[in-house]
């Protein structure tokens, strides 16, 4: 497999996962081979996801389970990005989120705390959400705690259709607290891409971001100064391109089309 | 007790409950006596609340428990108002709310239904909220169901501080569904006041609404064409008046100040 000439100039490929590499628990046809071929051509490959329900460890396990050649240090999930964003700003956090987020926060040296002690409310997708968790979060916010979300995605796709995402939970807290989040770390924020570039010593001009969403992947890539390729194996359809505020540099049927 | 001359001309008094008649489980000093005195002067007294956790029956019991002279037919809560709003529009509803709301919907002949059958999602304060309830509601909305809220209050006061209100839950669903509610029935919508005027044959010019909130009670009263008195025993402070979009006709220390 040989890279098309327009892609050969990039030394790093920043790949979104859901909709680019897999859908749910199914790898997208040709995607494991594409990742292997990128690495075989000496390219750096990094994996990105806005979903904060798993830690980097969790995503590494999923990547490998679905047949992708991935190593520790190559995974960037919004749970990790949120932990990095927070670690020099606060110490005690109140979490509305799942185990993967908790794991990353603890790895970053942050302490889980109750409504009366936390300096920050961290919001990710939480399928165990209860009214009590929202109430505790609001109590923190009423005390002046920061409000930080892993990502603002209003929904996520499931086998049964769309389900509420971290962005929906965030909207409830923003409404109750009467203020907007202090930071939404995931895409389209550039933070996660910039973190990866910094940690791997990559200059923006060398990297291509590959994603299936215009409003997060492509927009985030552009904000980070990266070239962006849209694949049509996930959320975005070709017909969405016309009204997109930010356009990708390339449009591909699937990640397989990086190659001739 | 004699009504002040400026209030004697009104034949009906539409009283908000929380912050006007009580705070939590404590009657506001002088409020039970004021209600009794209004009725003794031949005035019609009606009770209003945006809170949808109790039915009219539930509020009647609370009014009496706290020493207020109240009769069936005098209570207007947003659960009842939502049921009236819905009863000629849909038949099957998916409820995110508490027992009081369910009771009023059933009394209005509406059927509780699951995500695949409901024609409308009805949102009230739900202290038993779970992620699963939000997910079911979103599934209805994805099928095109109406989205109706009892009220848009982002918070409610509790002994432990502010807690998330129906408006916060509504915000989560609006974010997930990517659209606004089709109706928010409670104040500042005029519907609940208009319903009471209609059911009791009161003309707007005859009635005074008494409330503790500028953005719901006073605003709703003005939209319904009513005179409005703000009391300072609840949410609003005198200093809030200056930047209020809609001003009350009267400002009272407490409901007791209707009298000389």
Describe what you observe in this structure.
The structure is a homodimer of 260-residue chains. Chain A is built from 9 helices and 15 strands. Chain A folds into 2 domains: 5-50 and 187-258, HAD superfamily/HAD-like (Rossmann fold), CATH 3.40.50.1000; 89-184, HAD superfamily/HAD-like (Rossmann fold), CATH 3.40.50.1000. Chain A has a 6-stranded parallel sheet, with helices on both faces. In chain A, strands 7-6-8-9-12 form a 5-stranded parallel sheet, with helices on both faces. Chain A has a two-stranded antiparallel sheet with strand order 2-3. With 260 residues, the first copy, chain A, is an alpha/beta fold. In chain A, 33% of the residues lie in helices and 22% in strands. The longest helix of chain A is centred in the middle third of the chain and has 12 residues, at 131-142. At the A-B interface, α6, β11 and α7 of A face α6, β11 and α7 of B.
